[in-house]
Design a protein that fits this description.
This protein has 552 residues and is of the alpha+beta class. The strands form 3 sheets. It has a 6-stranded mixed β-sheet, with helices on both faces. Strands 2-1-5-4-3 form a 5-stranded antiparallel β-sheet. Strands 6-9-8-7 form a 4-stranded antiparallel β-sheet, covered by helices on one side. A hairpin with a 2-residue loop joins strand 3 (149-154) and strand 4 (157-166). It is extended and about 110 Å long. 49% of the residues lie in helices and 19% in strands. The longest helix has 66 residues, at 3-68. The protein has 15 helices and 15 strands.
Length: 552
Amino acid sequence: MNISAKLITVQFVILLVLLFGTSLASYFYAIPHVEQIETRQGLKDISRVVHRIDQELDLLAILATDWGEWDDTYAYIRDRNKAYEKSNLIDKTLFELEIDFIFIVKINGDVIWKQFSPKLKKFSTAALWQQGNWSEQHPFIALMKEREKGVIYSDMGSVLVAGSKIVTSQGDGESRGHLFFGKMLSADLVKRYSQDLEFPIELSIDNHLHEADVHFISQYKRIVHGLIKFANNPSHFLSISLIQPRPFYQEAITAIEYALLFVLGLGSFSSVITFFILKKVLINPIIQLRRQTYRFGRDQSSIPIKLLNSNDELGHLSASLVNMAYELKRSWGLLEQEKNEYLNASNTDALTQLKNRRCMESFLGRQQTWSTPKHWSFLMLDIDYFKKINDKWGHHVGDIVLQQFAALLTEVCRGSDVLFRTGGEEFVVVCEGTNQAQSCRIVERIRKSVEGFDFGPTEKPFKLTCSIGFYAMYNTKPNVDWEAKLKLADFAMYASKNSGRNTWVGLAINQQSRLVSNYQLPADVDMLITDIDAQKLLVFSTGDRVQEVIWR
C-alpha cells in the first residue's frame, strides 16, 4: 500500500473514531452528567424552600420572644390591663408584624386573648383554637415542650407557629403563660416565597412519607419533590413540589448535535485539504520537517508536525519530534501543576483550610467584586477566652478547636458566604446580598451554633462561645474602602466582648439621616460613639440589647 492509500485510510479511520468517540462521550457522559447537575440543582431548590420556611419560623420566634419577655406582657397576664390591649393588641399590630394571629394563654391553659387578621376572620371558629381552655395535648402547648416553633397541621391548612414563655425581661420568676404568633401558609405567602426564590412552588398536604427526589417527566420538564414534617401530626406531611423546565438538557442536546456536525464537517474538510496538499507537495513537508527538527532542537517553542509512523526517514524524523513534544508537554504540565499548588497554598490557611488574609485582601480589593450594586455584610468573629484553652489544654487542643470552629462556620454559613481566617482565633465572613435584618439572623444563628457545639477532643468535650461584630451596607461604587468597613466590624466585635461576650453587635448607616449623602465612616471609637449619638449609625445587638452595648 503506497503512502497516498495509507493517508486516505488513516484519515477515514480517524474521522470515524472522532465521530464515534464524540457520540459515546456525549450520550454516556455528557447527558448523564447534565442530569446529575439538574438533580443536584433540584434538591438544592427544595432545600432553599425548606430554608425559606425555616427563616419565616425564625422571624416569628424572634418576635414571640421579644413580646414574651416584655414586662408589660408579663403584667397583662395578671391584671388584664386594657391600656395594654388598646396600645398593642390591635389590627395594626398584626399588619406591622406581618402575622395572622396572636394568642395569649395563661399557665393553666385559659386563653385570655386571641386575635386574627382580616383574612383569617372566617377561620376564627376553627377547631384548632375554638376552645377557651387548652390542655397539655393542644398542638400549640405541645409545641412549647419541644422546639417552640414549627409547622402545624390543621383542617384549614398548614399554620406556621412560634411560641414563647411569658416571663420578665430579666428572664427570672415563674412563667405566667405562653404567647403565640403565627401565620397561615396561604397561597399569597407561597407566591411571595416563589418570588423570593425565583421559581414556582406548590405546597400540598400528603400522607405518604418519601425522600426528596427528582423525576424527569420529559426532555422538557422535571418535577422535584420534598417534604416538611408537621409538628403535631406524624401521619401527614407538607409536600413541596417544584415543576421546572429543563433548559440545560435542551442546550446539551443541541450542543451535542452541533458538535457532531462540526466534527463531521471539519474532519471531512481537513481530510480533503490535507490529502491534496500532501499528495501534490510531499517533498516540501519533508524539507520543512527537517528544518523544524533543527529549529525545535534550538527553540522548544517550535511545535513539531506529527506525520505517519513508518520505517522510512520521514517516520524516524516524525518519531523524534513527537518524543520531544511529549517531553516538553510533560514538563509544561508539571510546571503548571506546581504553579497551581503554590497559588492554592498561598491563599489557604494550612490549619483550618479556610481562605487566609492574603486571599481576603485580593478578593476585597478587586473591582469585579463590587461591580454590581447590592447589599453586603462584613462579619468579624473572635473565640472567647481562647488563650485559656491553650493554657489549660495545650496548643494541640487549641488547633483542634480552631479546626472545629472553621468547620462549624462552613456548615452554618450560606454557600455564597466567603470565610477567612485572618489570624489566631479571629475569623472574617463576607456575606453577599445580605441586608441588616438578614445579617442579624445570620450572626444569631452562628452564635447559637457555637454556644451549643461540643468543642475539643471527643473524650473531654467542652463548651465555648464567640463574640461577633458586623457592619451592613448597600454598595453602588466599583471602588470600596473595605478596610474601613472591616474596622467598623472590628469595633462592633470588641463592643460585644466589652458587653459580656457570647453576643453580637452590628452597625449600619442610618439611611434616614439627612447627613448620609456626605457621611464619612468613623476612624476610631470616639468618633463612632459620636456618630451613634447623632443617629448617623444604627446599632443592633443580641436580644435587642442595644442600650447595654459597651463600646470601650
